[in-house]
Design goal:
The complex is a heterodimer of chains A (about 500) and B (about 170).
Chain A: E1 10-11, H1 16-38, H2 44-65, E2 67-71, E3 74-79, E4 85-90, E5 94-101, H3 103-108, E6 110-118, E7 124-133, H4 134-145, E8 161-165, H5 168-177, H6 179-198, H7 201-214, H8 219-245, E9 249-252, E10 256-261, E11 266-272, E12 276-283, H9 285-290, E13 292-299, E14 311-317, H10 318-328, E15 339-340, H11 345-366, H12 370-393, E16 395-398, E17 403-407, E18 412-417, E19 424-429, H13 431-436, E20 438-444, E21 451-458, H14 459-469, H15 471-474, H16 482-488
Antiparallel strand pairs in A: 1-2, 2-3, 3-4, 5-6, 5-11, 6-7, 8-9, 9-10, 10-11, 12-13, 12-18, 13-14, 15-16, 16-17, 17-18, 19-20, 20-21
Chain B: E1 17-18, H1 23-51, H2 55-85, E2 88-91, E3 95-100, E4 105-111, E5 115-121, H3 124-128, E6 132-138, E7 145-150, H4 152-166
Antiparallel strand pairs in B: 1-2, 2-3, 3-4, 5-6, 6-7
The chains are: A alpha+beta (about 500), B alpha+beta (about 170).
Chain lengths: ~500, ~170
């Protein structure tokens, strides 16, 4: 190997000890606190001091034993205080390198490097360098990722093209229209309520009655309370969106798409363009009303790990999303009309949406619980609307180069796919589908990209689509029909 | 409206090859063992209850457990015949094609070029009946497929053919 590919072993940044300490503290803070509070007398301080000293020594040792280097086309990581381990990853197995910086990292000017490597079969292994300087992080990412591709002539960051940048206004709008951020405060309240259950019952009851005493009973006070609560929820939703996606920026530096985001914890994800297989546009009825969508990439070896790695744009105006889609993939056709699925799919969507409230509603009426019955009836009506929309949204279209599929209503997903991304095909048919002449095509994408489906299309549509997606593969299986002959020619 | 479970609208034609007929015995044995397990469990709970003079509970347990056991016996009799008739596979120049299931039916096509590994598996029951199952995996965790209950000779030929088509060298 050339001398260029070998370099001296690197250590993590000395301040990594602090990062280690913070990570460890999470686990060991409880015993320390217990000791501090339970030991009376003059023992507590010396013991605590000893624990801290020993802990610090271990952390420093850990830092000293952790080395990494790139040699002969491989990343070598050696670590371990008591048990020494060496991990070797060939560079061409590396699927992605993410840089992440928590608030502590940012204060110290460090980044955490997460290396995702293909580890035989479909699983992926993650290697973490807990803290290196920001500069070293950038250098490592370039060095680790350039191995698979050709050597990049210039690494001029100014050539990077900004494809999308989130403005605070967009992010606020995104937070307010996103179910995730709206529901997050409710989850927090749920957790608190759970805690309240664990408190000594007298205390919990007292707090509750205390709170109940202070709740205003007159109409004006009550409505003020409700309005205040709604405002609080909305503010929290907007704040959540701003926190995670603050100054989200998607850039294209030729070979890679680079997405960075976050207010406190900054995260930089690089996606090899050669791994991009397509993208999803996601929205909800609320977002549709405001003309907003979210955009995610469908890419091999990227979806693994934490969610959010695939985000290309957390929230974007739909007309800009179309422009972005074409910039990412000139062959994508976000405006092309979809082939609708047969009317027979409508009853299926409707029953799915209505059957649960209907069942419970009948039970409620049987038990003469009129209020729940009325609520369930209203839910059923909403279900009818949702079912109608779910049917309306079903569709697919293949123009010979890109497949577009759409489904869902409350969370709608439109996907554009390169058919070369498909790893295997499955057609599924339940007895109910068989009765209506429908079926569902499942396209498996592989390497963590999941699968996409063409839901409830007619048998003829399925046959035509499969025959078009891979003509030679399906040619022997699909019975001849005039329409197919036309499609194949 | 068409009858349930019948082959109705044709999307893909049915695969050419069937499993080894002995696979019916394998499936029947598997369900039978589960049924025996359910029966033993029922007895193990109901008898001590009866001895402890808890007649009503014992009766309930015996009825429920007995029902489940009967259901499993029914499955052991019916399921192998149904599934055997409705399970087919075929290898073409470009892909592996597997169709299975009578009511909930599933057709899978895996292109040879996408196959990562081809494995053979033999459980204790399969060994007793001299059967082999072949499993195919792809880069997608759920994108693979398997063919249970093949004659060892047929399975060998199948694995050879698949490995050859997929470009997997043997012994690596």
């Amino acid at each position: 190997m050339s001398e260029r590919s070998s370099e001296p072993s690197g250590r993590l940044h000395p301040l990594a000890v602090l990062v280690f300490a913070r990570k460890r503290l999470g686990a060991s803070i409880l015993p320390i606190l217990v000791i501090a509070f339970t030991w009376r007398g003059g023992f507590a301080l010396p013991v605590l001091g000893a624990i801290v000293a020993v802990g610090l020594a271990v952390l420093v040792l850990e830092w000293r034993r952790f080395t990494y280097r790139i040699e002969a086309g491989r990343l070598v990581i050696e670590r371990g205080v008591l048990r020494h381990t060496t991990r070797v990853v060939p560079l061409d197995r590396i699927r992605g390198v993410d840089l992440q910086a928590t608030w502590l990292h940012r204060v110290l000017g460090l980044v955490q490097v997460e290396v995702e490597a293909a580890a035989g079969g479909s699983s992926a292994a993650e290697l973490t360098l807990a803290a290196v300087s920001a500069q070293e992080g950038e250098r490592l990412r370039a060095a680790l990722l350039s191995a698979g591709a050709k050597e990049i002539a210039t690494d001029d960051p100014r050539t990077a093209l900004v494809l999308y940048r989130a403005t605070p206004r967009l992010l606020v709008a995104g937070g307010l229209t996103s179910g995730r951020y709206i529901l997050a405060p409710l989850a927090v309240i749920g957790v608190i309520a759970n805690f309240a259950d664990d408190l000594p019952s007298a205390l919990g009851d007292r707090l509750l009655s205390e709170a109940a005493d202070r709740v205003p009973t007159e109409v004006l006070g009550l409505s003020l309370l409700v309005v205040g609560g709604v405002f609080l929820a909305l503010a929290l939703a907007a704040a959540g969106s701003l926190l995670t996606d603050w100054s989200f920026e998607l850039t294209d530096d030729g070979d890679r798409l680079v997405a960075q985001r976050g207010l406190l914890t900054r995260r930089i994800v690089a996606i090899d363009r050669s791994r991009v297989r397509g993208f999803d546009l996601l929205d909800s009825p609320l977002r549709r009303a405001f003309g907003l969508v979210g955009m995610r990439v469908v890419a091999a070896g990227v979806a693994g790990g934490r969610p959010g790695r695939t985000a290309l744009a957390p929230v974007i105006a739909s007309e800009n999303a179309r422009v972005l889609a074409r910039a990412l993939d000139p062959l994508a056709m976000p405006d092309a009309p979809l082939d609708r699925h047969p009317k027979a799919a409508l009853p299926r969507r409707l029953t799915r949406a209505v059957v649960l409230p209907a069942m419970f509603g009948v039970v409620a009426i049987g038990l003469q619980l009129w209020l729940p019955a009325a609520i369930l009836f209203a839910l059923g009506l909403v279900g009818v609307l949702v079912g109608l929309d779910r049917y309306r949204q079903l569709g697919h279209h293949f123009d010979g180069r890109r497949l577009a599929v759409r489904e869902g209503s409350l969370s709608r997903r439109w996907t554009s796919l390169d058919p070369r991304a498909i790893v295997s095909y499955a057609i599924q048919r339940s007895p109910f589908q068989a009765r209506s002449g429908l079926c569902t095509i499942v396209l498996h994408l592989g390497q963590g990209a999941g699968s996409r489906r063409v839901l409830d299309c007619s048998e003829e549509q399925a046959a035509v689509l499969l025959a078009e997606l891979d003509v030679p593969l399906f040619e022997p299986f699909i019975p001849r029909s005039p329409r197919l002959a036309a499609a194949a020619s | 409206m068409r009858a349930l479970g019948q082959s109705c609208g044709v999307i893909l034609r049915e695969p050419a090859s069937q499993l080894d007929p002995r696979v019916r015995r394998l499936w029947a044995l598997e369900w039978g063992l589960v049924a025996v397990g359910a029966a033993v469990l029922t007895a193990g709970i109901a008898v001590p209850m009866a001895l402890a003079e808890n007649r009503l509970a014992a009766l309930v347990v015996a009825l429920v457990g007995g029902g489940v056991t009967l259901l499993l016996v029914g499955l052991a009799v019916l399921q192998p015949r149904l599934l055997y008739r409705r399970f087919g596979y075929e290898i073409t120049d470009l892909g592996l094609y597997v169709a299975r299931g009578s009511f909930w039916r599933r057709w899978q096509v895996v292109p040879h070029a996408r196959i990562q590994t081809v494995d053979t598996k033999r459980g204790p029951l399969e060994r007793a009946l001299r059967l082999v199952s072949v499993a195919v995996t792809t880069a997608s965790a759920k994108g693979g497929t398997d063919i249970p209950g093949l004659d060892p000779l047929v399975a060998d030929a199948l694995v050879q053919e698949l490995a050859h088509q997929a470009g997997i060298n043997e012994g690596t």
